[in-house]
Design a protein that fits this description.
alpha/beta
Length: 246
C-alpha cells in the first residue's frame, strides 16, 4: 500500500496580525486582534462604529503604535514600523473620508501616490489609473476639491493604485456615495481582485461586502468575534442579529 501524498503546504499569509493591542493614551481600543490576509484574497472587516476597525487599519499601516502583538507583512516583521516603511513594502491604505488634497489637481494628487513607492513607473501607472477611471483622465487639471464625492473616491483609490500595492486597504469606501455609485464601486473592487490584488475591505455595507469577500472578520469592542467564510456568517441568525444588525 503506497504512502499518502504529502499535504500541500499552505502559503504564508501576505498580512498576519497576531494578538494586536493598541489605542490612544490610556484608552485601549484593540484587545488582542489576530487577522490574516492571503495573497489575492478579499477579506471583509466588519463591525459597527467604534468597534476598532479604523484603529486596526492605522496600527497595521504604521500610523498608530501597537502596545503588544505582531504585524507581519510579506514574510517580514513590521511591528511598530513607520508608515513610510509600510508603504514602501506595498501595504497601501485608502483612508476613510478619502483625504485627497483639495487644492491640488487630479494629476498632482495621483502623482503623490507614487512618492514613496513605484516612482520610476509613475507614467505607466498613471496610464493604468486613467484606464480604470476615464473620468479622472478628463479632469487631470481640475482641483480635486471641486469634484463630486464619487469622483473624489475614484481619485483616492487611484492614488492608492499608483503605489502598486501588494495589499490595498479600503476603509469605508462606500461612505456617502449614492446607491448607483456604490454598485460601481463594488464592481471595481471585484475587477481589482480578479487582477490578483489582495484587498482588506473595511465596510459597514455588510451585504455587498459579504457577496464579494473570500473570508470575513467581525470586530466588536476591539476584539474579533467571528472569523470565517461569509456563508457561515450569514447562516447564523444569532451572529447576523448580534453583530451585523441583519
Amino acid at each position: 500500500m503506497s504512502a499518502p501524498a504529502p499535504a500541500t503546504p499552505t502559503a504564508p499569509p501576505l498580512l498576519e496580525v497576531q494578538g494586536l493591542r493598541a489605542g490612544y493614551g490610556r484608552i485601549e481600543v484593540l484587545r488582542g486582534v489576530s487577522l490574516r490576509v492571503q495573497a489575492g484574497e478579499i477579506v471583509a472587516l466588519l463591525g459597527s462604529n467604534g468597534a476598532g476597525k479604523s484603529t486596526l487599519n492605522n496600527t497595521v499601516c504604521g500610523l498608530v503604535a501597537p502596545t503588544a502583538g505582531r504585524v507581519g507583512f510579506d514574510g517580514a516583521d513590521h511591528t511598530g514600523a513607520p508608515a513610510r516603511r509600510m508603504v514602501q513594502a506595498g501595504l497601501i491604505q485608502v483612508p476613510e473620508g478619502r483625504r485627497i488634497f483639495p487644492n491640488l489637481t487630479v494629476q498632482e494628487n495621483l502623482e503623490l501616490g507614487s512618492f514613496a513607492r513605484a516612482r520610476s513607473r509613475r507614467s505607466a501607472n498613471l496610464a493604468n489609473v486613467f484606464g480604470i477611471f476615464p473620468r479622472l483622465a478628463e479632469r487631470t487639471r481640475q482641483l480635486a476639491g471641486t469634484m463630486s464625492g464619487g469622483e473624489q473616491q475614484m481619485l483616492a483609490i487611484g492614488r492608492g493604485l499608483m503605489a502598486e500595492p501588494r495589499l490595498l486597504i479600503l476603509d469605508e469606501p462606500s461612505l456617502g456615495l449614492s446607491p448607483l455609485l456604490v454598485e460601481e464601486l463594488f464592481a471595481l473592487i471585484k475587477r481589482l481582485h480578479a487582477q490578483g490584488l489582495a484587498i482588506l475591505l473595511v465596510e459597514q455595507n455588510v451585504g455587498q461586502s459579504l457577496e464579494i469577500a473570500d473570508r470575513a472578520y467581525v470586530l466588536e469592542n476591539g476584539a474579533v468575534r467571528f472569523e470565517g467564510r461569509p456563508e457561515a456568517l450569514l447562516a447564523s441568525p444569532d451572529l447576523k442579529r448580534a453583530y451585523l444588525g441583519l
